[in-house]
């Protein structure tokens, strides 16, 4: 398995020392880095993966047998009680991102648990689409990483598609606080770490109007000057720059405006966070030195309409109903007052 080594720097500004400072042990692939890649926990709408390539012949380079697609997870797989499914997408716009074909990228996913234990999962085909099924037994947060890197001349191109996976509940009490914390992998060349809400615990529910904070890291250290873009499902986007601590903040805007009859308070909108940075930090890749690096990482999430949204809808419907009732009552009383009671008059024409 290829590994990535960043050279240590002397404090006097001299040449990097030969002793490696950080080693990347996550699965990586030495192929040209494609467009923006990210994980989604919802299946794409396409019937076929837009980026899928014809399956290679058995025995050919890049071919993957059925046996190779099944990872032996030992006791972890046998004791697992829940599988989380992640589809790989390509494209910076969540609404238009295509499904990635499993034959296009055959690299495995590294999964990291809150207890520090990690394992790998091989992708499987979901109608030709790249699908990762992650067995999870214990409560808590987990991270899934797909890391790709390539050396072009003396420049390193690296991309990390990350997904934060949760197995939790809103009802469980006495949970170990360590299970509720956001986790990160110091071996990743670049990563987005979402700060959890104070009362989030093991039940994540983001709504429009919430302010969410992220920390951009590179090999476990905050990365300043990274360009971080938020893109909503409806295509609205905003780009900010990470500060000296690698931190950025976004507000989840209201991006859901259906008709009153079509409003669904349980609907969820997808958002995508993409971070990119150019660095002049030298290092080594597969035994070759590079002078600069272009790093990219992605992290997606979902949020629902704010409770104030559907309360305002209910309030508006209540006012409309009250006005309709008032007008109906007024019209009824007005018409009743204009109705003349029946009177019978008898007269004798011969009188």
Describe this structure as you would to a colleague:
This protein has 351 residues and is mainly β. The chain has one domain. 13% of the residues lie in helices and 36% in strands. The protein is built from four helices and 21 strands. It has helices at 66-69, 75-79, 177-180, 307-338; strands at 4-7, 20-24, 37-40, 82-90, 98-99, 109-113, 118-121, 124-126, 129-136, 140-152, 155-167, 191-194, 211-218, 221-222, 227-231, 237-241, 247-251, 269-279, 283-285, 288-290, 292-303. Strands 7-6-10-11-21-18-15-16 form an eight-stranded mixed β-sheet. Strand 15 and strand 16 (237-241) form a beta hairpin. The longest helix has 32 residues, at 307-338. It is elongated. The termini are far apart. Mean pLDDT is 76; it is low at 1-32 and 46-81.
Q: What distinguishing features does this structure have?
A:
351 residues, transmembrane helix, eight-stranded mixed beta sheet, transmembrane, disordered N terminus, mainly beta, five-stranded antiparallel beta sheet, 13% helix, membrane, 36% strand, single chain
In short:
Keywords: Membrane, Transmembrane, Transmembrane helix. With 351 residues, the protein is mostly beta strands. It contains 4 helices and 21 strands.
């Amino acid at each position: 398995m290829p590994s990535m080594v960043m050279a240590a720097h002397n404090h006097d500004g001299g040449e990097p020392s030969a002793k490696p400072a950080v080693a990347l042990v996550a699965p990586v692939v030495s192929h040209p880095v494609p467009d923006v890649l990210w994980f989604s926990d919802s299946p794409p709408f396409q019937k076929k993966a837009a980026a899928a390539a014809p399956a290679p012949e058995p025995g050919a380079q890049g071919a993957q047998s059925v046996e190779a697609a099944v990872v032996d997870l030992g006791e972890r797989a046998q004791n697992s009680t829940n599988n989380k499914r992640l589809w790989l997408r390509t494209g910076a716009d969540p609404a238009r991102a295509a499904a990635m074909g499993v034959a296009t990228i055959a690299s495995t996913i590294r999964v990291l648990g809150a207890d520090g234990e990690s394992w790998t999962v091989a992708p499987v085909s979901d109608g030709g689409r790249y699908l990762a099924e992650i067995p999870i037994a214990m409560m808590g947060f987990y991270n899934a990483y797909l890391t790709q890197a390539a050396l072009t001349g003396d420049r390193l191109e690296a991309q990390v598609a990350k997904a934060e996976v949760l197995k939790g509940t809103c009802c469980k009490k006495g949970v170990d606080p360590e299970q509720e914390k956001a986790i990160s992998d110091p071996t990743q060349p670049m990563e987005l770490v979402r700060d959890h809400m104070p009362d989030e615990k093991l039940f994540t529910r983001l709504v429009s109007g919430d302010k969410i904070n992220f920390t951009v890291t590179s090999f476990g250290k905050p990365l300043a000057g990274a360009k971080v873009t938020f893109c909503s499902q409806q295509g609205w986007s905003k780009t900010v720059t990470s500060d000296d601590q690698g931190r950025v903040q976004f507000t989840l805007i209201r991006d859901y405006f259906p008709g009153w009859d079509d409003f669904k308070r349980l609907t969820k909108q997808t958002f995508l966070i993409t971070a990119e940075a150019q660095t002049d930090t030298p290092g080594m890749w597969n035994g070759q030195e590079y002078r600069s690096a272009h790093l990219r990482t992605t992290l997606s999430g979902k949020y629902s309409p704010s409770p104030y949204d559907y309360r305002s809808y209910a309030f508006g419907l209540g006012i409309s109903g009250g006005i309709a009732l008032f007008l109906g009552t007024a019209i009824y009383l007005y018409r009743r007052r204009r109705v003349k009671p029946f009177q019978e008059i008898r007269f004798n024409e011969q009188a």
